[in-house]
Amino acid sequence: MSQIKLIVGLGNPGPEYVDTRHNAGFWWVDQLADDGKVPLRHDVKFHGLVGKVRLHGQDVWLLEPQTYMNKSGIAVLALAQFYKILPDQILVAHDELDVPPGQVKLKQGGGHGGHNGLRDIQAHLGTPNFWRLRIGVGHPGDRNEVVNFVLKPPRKEEFDAIGDAMTRAHHVLPKLLAGETGAAMQLLHTDETKKRPHKPAPDA
């Protein structure tokens, strides 16, 4: 199994997007940078915010593309080529419409499901064979409302549930970074089936 050497968080740059569902990938990578006590700094040649952290005894690059979602592949390819990181050593954290808030899934390869960030990364890398951390944000129910939905902040109970899911993703990070991707997937998805249903916060 290949070790994960690059973790990419997807989102849109700018203060107007910080709290939106589409920036869930940024949220998770921000937490990893905090854990590693390393600030993410803008690097022009990599078209994004970049930092190298040591987590659970492993060195890993963190990247938040600043090119807007639909051009995320430019940044991913630039850093991966420069440091000779293979597609199966890349983990992309992103918002996932087909997974409800409070759940998080791990997979390798597959389609982009209409996600513009994944589509562009796949096009630039020339393969879908990278890992994805699918952070559930839920679906508006109407396909015509998807863009409006992902560019708005989640409700309080959804935000709390997403935070819980990210915490569970943190628990499998040691296995991911050690190259035990199969074990990480099994642990994460087993945890998903055992977790208690999230209860919305009571009305004030």
Automatic annotation (TrEMBL):
<comment type="function">
    <text>Catalyzes the release of premature peptidyl moieties from peptidyl-tRNA molecules trapped in stalled 50S ribosomal subunits, and thus maintains levels of free tRNAs and 50S ribosomes.</text>
</comment>
<dbReference type="InterPro" id="IPR036416">
    <property type="entry name" value="Pept_tRNA_hydro_sf"/>
</dbReference>
<feature type="active site" description="Proton acceptor">
    <location>
        <position position="22"/>
    </location>
</feature>
<feature type="binding site">
    <location>
        <position position="116"/>
    </location>
    <ligand>
        <name>tRNA</name>
    </ligand>
</feature>
<keyword id="KW-0820">tRNA-binding</keyword>
<keyword id="KW-0378">Hydrolase</keyword>
<feature type="binding site">
    <location>
        <position position="70"/>
    </location>
    <ligand>
        <name>tRNA</name>
    </ligand>
</feature>
<comment type="similarity">
    <text>Belongs to the PTH family.</text>
</comment>
<dbReference type="GO" id="GO:0004045">
    <property type="term" value="F:peptidyl-tRNA hydrolase activity"/>
</dbReference>
<dbReference type="InterPro" id="IPR001328">
    <property type="entry name" value="Pept_tRNA_hydro"/>
</dbReference>
<dbReference type="GO" id="GO:0072344">
    <property type="term" value="P:rescue of stalled ribosome"/>
</dbReference>
<dbReference type="GO" id="GO:0006515">
    <property type="term" value="P:protein quality control for misfolded or incompletely synthesized proteins"/>
</dbReference>
<feature type="site" description="Stabilizes the basic form of H active site to accept a proton">
    <location>
        <position position="95"/>
    </location>
</feature>
<protein>
    <recommendedName>
        <fullName>Peptidyl-tRNA hydrolase</fullName>
        <ecNumber>3.1.1.29</ecNumber>
    </recommendedName>
</protein>
<feature type="binding site">
    <location>
        <position position="68"/>
    </location>
    <ligand>
        <name>tRNA</name>
    </ligand>
</feature>
<dbReference type="InterPro" id="IPR018171">
    <property type="entry name" value="Pept_tRNA_hydro_CS"/>
</dbReference>
<keyword id="KW-0694">RNA-binding</keyword>
<dbReference type="GO" id="GO:0000049">
    <property type="term" value="F:tRNA binding"/>
</dbReference>
<comment type="function">
    <text>Hydrolyzes ribosome-free peptidyl-tRNAs (with 1 or more amino acids incorporated), which drop off the ribosome during protein synthesis, or as a result of ribosome stalling.</text>
</comment>
<dbReference type="Pfam" id="PF01195">
    <property type="entry name" value="Pept_tRNA_hydro"/>
</dbReference>
<dbReference type="GO" id="GO:0005737">
    <property type="term" value="C:cytoplasm"/>
</dbReference>
<comment type="subunit">
    <text>Monomer.</text>
</comment>
<keyword id="KW-0963">Cytoplasm</keyword>
<feature type="site" description="Discriminates between blocked and unblocked aminoacyl-tRNA">
    <location>
        <position position="12"/>
    </location>
</feature>
<feature type="binding site">
    <location>
        <position position="17"/>
    </location>
    <ligand>
        <name>tRNA</name>
    </ligand>
</feature>
